[in-house]
Specification:
This protein has 205 residues and is an alpha/beta fold. It contains 6 helices and 9 strands, in the order ααββαβαβαββαβββ. The protein has a single domain, classed as 3-Layer(aba) Sandwich (Rossmann fold). A 7-stranded mixed β-sheet has the order 5-4-3-6-7-8-9. A two-stranded antiparallel ribbon has the order 1-2. Helix 1 runs antiparallel to helix 2.
C-alpha cells in the first residue's frame, strides 16, 4: 500500500526521488489514530489528536520537495503534529528541531518517534517564536497555515537557507522563501493548500 502511494505521487508530480524514497520508508499507518490505519496510504488528510490533522501525502511531499533537505542540515519544523513530517525529515538525514504547541501531540510524537528510532529534538512551545537559541537553521518548514510570515522565523533562517510556509487565512498559498542576503529574501508561490491555522502560545489540555 505504501509503494502504491509512492507510485501515485510519482505520477502526479516530478518530486525529488529522495523525498519519495523517504515516504516509502516511513510507516504512515503508525502515525494516524487507531481505526484509521486502513486510510493511511490514501492521498488525504486524516484527523489526529487535539482536533488537528495529519497532512495528505501530496502536501507532505510538496513541502519536503520545496525544502530541498540535505543530510546533516539543521531543520526547524513548526508544528510537530503526530510526527510524520518529522520522521520524513529524519529519514532524509536532517538534524531536526521541531516545536509543537499542543502538549498532547508533543508527548505522543515524542513517544512515537522514539519507538520508531527516529532521532529528532522536540520542544513544547510557541512556534511563532521559533528557537532563537539554536538558530540559524538551513531550512525551516511550517506545517500549519500562517496568516502572515512570522518575522522571528525569517530572522532565524540562515543566509542561503529555504523556508516553506503556507500563508493565508481561508486556504493558504504555499510559499518558498529563500534568504539571499542579510536583509534580502526571495519569495515564490507554489499552489493552493488547506492547513489548520497557526496559533500563538501553547495549549496543554
Amino acid at each position: 500500500m505504501r509503494q502504491r502511494l509512492v507510485d501515485y505521487l510519482r505520477k502526479k508530480f516530478p518530486f525529488d526521488e529522495n523525498v519519495l524514497n523517504a515516504m516509502g520508508k516511513v510507516p504512515r499507518h503508525l502515525f494516524v489514530d487507531k481505526g484509521l490505519e486502513h486510510f493511511a496510504y490514501e492521498d488525504k488528510p486524516l484527523s489526529i489528536a487535539a482536533k488537528q490533522t495529519i497532512s495528505q501525502p501530496f502536501t507532505v511531499a510538496m513541502q519536503t520537495h520545496l525544502l530541498q533537505v540535505k543530510k546533516w542540515e539543521k531543520v526547524l519544523e513548526i508544528g510537530t503534529g503526530c510526527g510524520y513530517q518529522t520522521a520524513i525529515l529524519a529519514e532524509l538525514g536532517a538534524t531536526v528541531y521541531s516545536i509543537e504547541r499542543q502538549r498532547e501531540l508533543y508527548l505522543q510524537a515524542q513517544q512515537r518517534l522514539l519507538g520508531l528510532h527516529y532521532r529528532a529534538s522536540l520542544f513544547y512551545g510557541d512556534g511563532y517564536a521559533g528557537k532563537p537559541t539554536l538558530a540559524p537553521f538551513q531550512k525551516i518548514i511550517v506545517t500549519c497555515g500562517a496568516p502572515e510570515v512570522p518575522q522571528a522565523l525569517l530572522s532565524q533562517l540562515a543566509v542561503g537557507g529555504r523556508m516553506v510556509i503556507p500563508v493565508g487565512e481561508n486556504g493558504q498559498t504555499m510559499q518558498l522563501i529563500e534568504r539571499t542576503g542579510e536583509s534580502d529574501y526571495r519569495t515564490t508561490q507554489h499552489g493552493e493548500f488547506s492547513f489548520v491555522p497557526m496559533l500563538t502560545g501553547t495549549n496543554h489540555e
